[in-house]
Amino acid sequence: MEYDDDLYRDVIIDHYSSPRNKHVMEDYHKHEGGVNRSCGDEIDIFVKLDGNVISDISFSGVGCSISQASASMLTEAVKGKSLEDAEKVIGKFKSMLLENANPDFSNDNPDLEVLQGVKQYPVRIKCALLSWNTLEQIIKDSK
Ligand code: ZN
Prior knowledge:
By secondary structure, this protein is α+β, with helices and mostly antiparallel strands. Helices cover 43% and strands 19% of the residues. It contains four helices and three strands; from the N terminus they run αβββααα. It has helices spanning 5-17, 65-78, 83-98, 125-142, and strands at 30-36, 41-50, 53-62. It has a three-stranded antiparallel beta sheet, with helices on one face. The protein is globular. Zinc ion (ZN) is lined by residues 36, 39, 41, 63-64, 66-67, 127.
């Protein structure tokens, strides 16, 4: 996808102002918190598992628009996926931000592709990755 600055901004604002799956889950199976001190972002991820499948996921947190929008997109991308498939999405997302890859997210959450715009602002990459690293920790602990 061609980088589009307006689309990038619109998608971030949409997820920041109307976050998906943003609430504290009471009956979770797994929880992990993450902090990005360089920006002051805080994210908590809550996961409910049905066997090996992420049957429900939510987040709570405070921080910049990129950290919160990225967490919102993450929850949409992995909800209903197995832990292995969620791990693959995390790998694709990290390769997009850290290795210049151009992955296809059409089966995950197409909104994710606009986050490659974050690469224009290298200090914000940590903001975008915070929730993803937090979920990755949950998956590692679940194995
Ligand atoms: Zn941030």
